[in-house]
Design a protein that fits this description.
The structure holds three protein chains of three kinds. By secondary structure, chain A is α/β, with parallel strands linked by helices. Chain A has seven helices and seven strands. Helix content of chain A is 32%, strand content 14%. In chain A, helix 2 (42-54) packs antiparallel against helix 5. Chain B has helices at 2-8, 34-43, 102-112, 144-151, 163-171; strands at residues 14-21, 24-29, 49-58, 63-72, 77-86. In chain B, strand 1 and strand 2 form a beta hairpin. Chain B is extended and about 70 Å long. Chain B has a five-stranded mixed beta sheet. Chain B contains five helices and five strands, in the order H-E-E-H-E-E-E-H-H-H. Classes of the chains: A alpha/beta, B alpha+beta, C mainly alpha. Chains in contact: A-B, A-C.
Chain lengths: 214, 175, 304
Amino acid sequence: MSKEHTEKRTVYSPEGEAIEVDPLKDYFCEDLPEVHKKSSIAVVENFRNWARSRSLWVLGFGTGCGAIEMRPLMTPKFDAYRYGIQWRPTPRQADVFVISGYLSVKTLKRVIRTYEQMQGPKYVMALGSCTINGGMYWDSYNTINRLDYYLPVDVYVAGCMPRPESLLAGFDQLKKIIREGRGEGYNVYAEKFEWYKSNQKKIIKDWDMPDYNW
Amino acid sequence: MKEIINKIEKLYPISDFKQQNDKTALLTVEQDKAVDLLIYMQKFEGFKHLAILTAVDWIENNQFQLSYIINNPELKMDLILRVFIDREKAEMTSIHNLWEQAATYQRELKEMFGINFPNSPRVDKPFILEGWDGLPPYRRDFDTKKYSEDTYFPREGRTKNNPVEYMKQKLYPDE
Amino acid sequence: MDPLFKQILFALLTLFIVLNYGLLVQGITRKIGARVGRRYGIPFYQPYIDIIKNYSKRTRISHGIMYYIAPVFRLTGGIGLLMFMPVIFGNNMFQNFSFSGDLLLILYFQFFGVLGMALGAGESGHPHSAIGVSRGLSQVTAYELPLTLAVISLAVQYQTLNITEIVAAQQGGILNWSFFTNPLASIAMLLAFLAAMGRSPFDVVLAPQEIPIGPPTEFHSGLLGVLQLNRAIFPIAKLILFMNLLFGGASSWGELIIKTFFIYMLSVVVGVVYPRFRVDQSVRWYLGVPLVIGVAAVLVSKFL
């Protein structure tokens, strides 16, 4: 197993000093996530939710077979840009994570790492029936059956794969949820953090990441 | 094809030759002479291309069958070489010196079936299943449905419909 | 009222107008690009909403103290460039702290942003940021050469380093513009302008499809909001500089908006036609034709 990069080791500084390094403690932050409260003034929070719903930045990470349904949204025929939806390549700048389809255990580890690097109010949109109850791969030894035991999901879009028009309807539903102030999935993740983490660690057997990837 | 078989019948322990159609033929060879036959086919008979190396689980006979599918580009013929190996101690000589791509096929067989190919490059590196410590999943005594129900939390309320019955109900509800 | 206090207020008013103009120009350019591609495109006020959304993010991480330098330096470069430039000619209110010799100061401020970005993006530790930063620095060094030579040529022609006097010498008809009296310097400067705007064929620094976003990869929430504000102010300030030096300045806000819009459209039109240069190709190109034109401009304005 490739776990040598998480063992303790000695590195040498340019002056020749030997430094003892424990990678999981020293290179990563050990804090756990906290719950972030909304602003107490209702007008301010409504205004912020209005702005968040009008400018959704989607992470350009095609997780499964639904990635092919995200691409037509950038073309003139379906044009998601007129709703303020733009694609960003890095998780630090993205708001919405579109999980498009089945997740094998290998992909789930990378998805968790990416999701925890996103900032602030972040939303997850799950496409397809594989995220709802396992879909076509319900009896497979390598794919998960219920996504909301591992990540907090805000909107499910049913289909196998949903067509681009269904995706746009899903984004519309997500905007309604955000504007009503119910887009607090990431706070749920921080509250029930031990439960989510134990579920994740149960199936990801070679865990070489810190508990929360800031 | 028949001529080639007549040539090698006395040299290698082969049996069960079958000409499936005019492009495909099957042949069984014993385990200790299998690699020699592959070298002979590659160098002297022109079967230069290894299409795939895969395995079949014969749990009733307690054997694995390895299938080497090699192809002759000039005559456009496929030959499937069957090698039966023991299921308890599944090991076979590696052929990555003849064809480089066999290293990847052997890596997959090691992970999914548990067939060991000693000295094959990167054969212990996990391919798709990271951190797997149970029975190799492609074996027939691995119950994948039970494993999935135990590990990945299934959602209740999942039903199955027979499409013929369902559409009959919908379109002709009176009958 | 104290005249210094009045000047500060008018400088802030200039900043406010330029900020809005920059955000609207960004939105309108994207709208035009979308309409040309036969789709509806993004609403033209979208950059405002993007900035508000970035500021209303609730979490932020930090990579250390030097990580904050990048947005701060970039915004300082942008605002500084604007503060020392006379915006409207003949109008005492919008002269903005310009003084004689401010031409050199403005050339200095142009490099400020990329330098700060290099420090901050390097501290963030992301390998894509490091690649983007090295590309950005090499490109800026390359295009500064024809730009500086053209500016020296203009300074020699008009015998002054004060932008207000250069603008004053270009009044009185279109044929008095530097674009027609000193064509070599204008061409060298416009070729440098293409890289300064950061569009194709010189956009390998940001390279949205190659390395994800380049230097601003690790910047998020409020810090990205600061970078976006700067992205509205900095290009407009550079456009006003080019307009003052080459196209005769503006004597009212309407004329400024029209002239800068058309100069900006020049870079957009070139951008949609040409594909991207690699960094070594663009450096080699800038040390070829534009450098020769710049040197020729200096010699011509000295000896003619």
